[in-house]
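Why should sequence recovery work at all? Because a backbone constrains its sequence more than one might expect. Tight turns favour small or flexible residues, buried strands favour hydrophobic ones, and helices have their own preferences. The token representation captures these environments compactly. In the example below, the structure is given first.
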């Protein structure tokens, strides 16, 4: 059973190789017969030999050659030719085996060199392209092969043209068509890509969390600053309000004292003061028991007139002392 499967695989591989070789072989023009009068097609060059030696190259159009003496040895097509470069293996700088195929675009620029410089120009240029490609692939790592695909094509074209100049052939373009990696390397690269994407996602998520925390912290900071400024403004306003209230009370007190002094200076002012003191005395006794259960009373509680007289005596003493102080001050002012 194993031999049957192996033989089938070998047969399929051989069949595919033959089909690929048949596709890669270009249909060559058959050598025309010397009919003396020849019509050379456009974009073709016919190489004529006389007695086995190169004689001339016939240009497109009507041409005449001698019979028997002259013979058509080579027919070169001047059109651009596309050659399929078969699958080949190459090893990169980091020891990874690549399998790739490419397309080579050629053009014959010198029919003489293409006829006598090399036996099979297309085969020679194909082998040169394969060896050059292996050499260029060996200079770069696997990670840079896919990025530098265009520069790799240019380098291969320059290397081929440098060697194929003696063959009369110019390489127009070299295009890498397909690249295949080993299965394990592909899996490793896929794992690397997934890991890189996860890394980027984690970095983006962490950056988002950091930005969010920074925004929250800045918001809290600004909120505290605004609250402190508001509290400070509130305290300042409250202090200013209290100061204005104290000033207003002081001004009202001063105005009331001034009014009282004016009233005392008038007739019957002392009688009015005596009546006011008596009213306040009665009112004070009426409020004694409201704030506390323990009340301390003087001995002469019923002697309201005595209390009023005592208050007036104190008032007169204070008024006399204040008058003396004012007189002393006025004298000092006058002396000064």
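From this structural description, the recovered sequence reads:
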């Amino acid at each position: 059973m194993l031999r049957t499967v192996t033989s089938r695989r070998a047969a399929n591989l051989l069949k595919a190789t033959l089909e690929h070789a048949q596709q890669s072989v270009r249909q060559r023009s058959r050598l025309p017969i010397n009919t003396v009068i020849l019509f050379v097609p456009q974009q073709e060059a016919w190489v004529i030999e006389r007695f086995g030696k190169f004689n001339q190259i016939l240009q497109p159009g009507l041409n005449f050659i001698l019979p028997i003496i002259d013979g058509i040895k080579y027919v070169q097509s001047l059109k651009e030719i596309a050659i399929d470069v078969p699958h080949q293996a190459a090893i990169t700088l980091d020891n990874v085996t690549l399998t790739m195929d490419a397309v080579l675009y050629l053009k014959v620029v010198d029919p003489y060199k293409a006829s006598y410089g090399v036996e099979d120009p297309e085969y020679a240029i194909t082998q040169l392209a394969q060896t050059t490609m292996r050499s260029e692939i060996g200079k770069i790592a696997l990670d840079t092969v896919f990025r530098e695909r265009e520069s790799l094509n240019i380098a291969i074209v320059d290397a081929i043209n440098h060697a194929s100049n003696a063959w009369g052939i110019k390489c127009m373009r070299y295009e890498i068509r397909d690249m295949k990696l080993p299965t394990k390397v592909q899996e490793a690269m896929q794992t690397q890509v997934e890991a890189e994407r996860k890394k980027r996602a984690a970095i983006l998520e962490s950056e988002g969390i950091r930005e969010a925390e920074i925004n929250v912290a800045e918001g809290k900071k600004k909120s505290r600053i605004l609250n402190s400024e508001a509290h400070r403004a509130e305290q300042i306003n409250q202090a200013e309000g209290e100061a204005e209230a104290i000033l207003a009370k002081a001004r009202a007190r001063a105005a009331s004292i001034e009014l009282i002094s004016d009233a005392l200076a008038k007739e019957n002012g002392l009688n009015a003061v005596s009546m006011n003191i008596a009213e306040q005395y009665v009112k004070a006794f009426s409020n004694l028991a409201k704030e506390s259960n323990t009340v301390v009373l003087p001995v002469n509680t019923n002697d309201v007139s005595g209390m009023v007289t005592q208050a007036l005596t104190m008032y007169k003493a204070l008024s006399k002392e204040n008058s003396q102080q004012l007189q002393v001050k006025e004298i000092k002012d006058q002396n000064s």
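A few observations help interpret the result. The chain has nine helices and eight strands.
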